[in-house]
Amino acid sequence: MSASTFTKFGQRAKNRLKEQVPTPSTLWRYKVRAWLKQWPERLLRKTSLAKLVEAQVQARTQALFRQANYDTLTHLPNRNYFTATLEDTLTRAENEDAAFALLFLDLDGFKPVNDTYGHAAGDELLRLVAARLVASVREDDFVARLGGDEFVILLRDLVDEDIIQTISKRLIHEVSRPYWVDGRAVQVSTSVGIAEFPSDGKTAAQVMERADQALYAAKHRGRKQFCFYRDVASDAKVAPDHLQTHFEVDVEHQKFIPCFRRVEPLSAAEDTFMRMNVRWQDAPIENDWYEGWQPLLARSQWSTSMGLWMVETAAWYLAQWRSPSTGCSVPLDTALLLQESVADLLAQRVESYGAKPEQLILSVDIDAVNRLDLKAVEVLDALKKKGFKLRLQGFGSRTIEPALFAHLQIDYLAINWVDALRFAGQLEKRLRWLEGLVAWGHALGARVLVDDLDDVEALQAMQAIGVDAVEGAVIECYHPGEESQAA
Description:
It comes from Sulfurivirga caldicuralii. Residues 240-487 form the EAL domain. Its cofactor is Mg(2+). GO terms for molecular function: catalytic activity. The structure is a single chain. The chain folds into 3 domains: 20-68; 79-234, 2-Layer Sandwich (Alpha-Beta Plaits); 240-483, TIM Barrel, CATH 3.20.20.450. It contains 19 helices and 16 strands. It starts with a helix and ends in a 7-residue tail after the last strand. It is α/β, with parallel strands linked by helices. The protein is elongated, with a radius of gyration of 37 Å. An 8-stranded mixed β-barrel has the order 8-9-10-11-12-13-14-15, surrounded by 5 helices. The chain has a 5-stranded mixed sheet with strand order 2-3-1-6-7, with helices on both faces.
C-alpha cells in the first residue's frame, strides 16, 4: 500500500470517528428520543401508583367508617349510625309528609345462655339472631344493634298497620326458633315495642322513648308479644312521662296501703291463709292495685325498696295476728329476684319481725319467670330452701316454657277467673278449661287456686273439679291492714 493510499484511509477513518462523537445538539436529540420511547411506560407506572394510592385511601376511609358506624360482632349498624339514620329518616318524612315505624326489640332468655355456656356462645347467638332479623324484614328497612341484646328496626315509608303487624309476627317467630350454638340447641325469644311517626312522637328522642315504653308493655304481657305505643298510652289517664313522675312522688309520700283478703280452702286438708295486695291511693290509672302499677315501679328507683317493704309488711301483720298457723301470700317483685343472696335477706327480714319464712307465700308473676329464665329458677329454689312457699300468678292465661316450668318447685298455681272468661266464655266451657288446668297442676305436685272469683254458681262447682282454694269478691273483698284479722 502506498503512502498516499494509507493517508487517505486514515483521514476517512478519522472523519467517521468524528461523526460518532455526539455534539451537544445531537446529545439532546438522543435524550429526547430515549425519553419519548420510555414515556408510555413511565406514564402507565405513575397512573398505576396514583390509582393504588387512591384505592388505599378509599379502603382506609371505608374501614374507618365501618369502625365508627358498624357493630364489630354482628356487622349491623351500631347506635351512632342508627341515631343519624333515624334523624335523616325523620327529616325526610317531615318534608315529604310520610310515615315510618320504629321497632324496639330485645331477647328473652339471652342472659342465662350467656351465663351458662359462656360469652363465646352468647356472641355466636347474637350473630345468628342478627342474621334472622335482617332476613325477616324488607330490603329497604334498616336493622341496627344498640348494644347487648337490644336491636332496633326502622320500617320506612309505611302507612299500612297490617304490614307492621305482619313483620312483627315474623320477627318474633323467626327469632324464637331454636339455634345450634357450640354443638348444642339453645332457644331465646323476643318481644317487640312499636312507635309510629308522626302519631307517637315528633322528634327522634320521643319516638325512641315511646318504642321503649311499648317494648316494656309487650314484655309485661308475656313472652313473644308485640305492642303499639298507642295501646300503652290509652291505658293511662295521664301522659306516661307525667304518670311516672306522679307515681314516684306518691311513693315518696307513702300513698300506698296494704290490704288483705281471705283465701278460702275447698277441702279440709287445706289451710286458710290471707292474701296481701297494695293499693295506690288516688291513682290516675284504672287498676290501682299492685298489678296495675307494677310497670311504673319497675322503671323507678324504688323497685327494690318497695319490694322489700311489701314482704316486711306481710311479716309484721303475721306477727301482730299471733297465729302461727296462718299464712300470707304477698307479691314478690321482679327487682328482688335480681338481688344477690335475696333468700338470705328475706329470711332475715321476716324473722326480725317475729314471723317465720314458712308462713310467707311469695307470689311471683309468670312473666317475670319467663324474662329471668334460669336465673328465676335459681332464686326461687334458694327461697324454697329457706322455707318460703311459692305461688305462680297467671297460670293458664299466659305461657311458660315446659322445660323451665319443670325446674320450678311451686306450691300454688293461681288461675285468674276473669282471664278464664276471656279464654272460654260460657260458664260450662270455663269449668272444663279450668278442670284441665287443675289436673295438670296436681300432676306437677302443686295446689291450684282460683282468684278474683265473683260467681257464686261457679264457686259451687269448684270443689267438684278439684280446685284447692278460691279467693275474690265471692269470698271476701280486700280490707286495709288495720281492719284485717287473721284467717
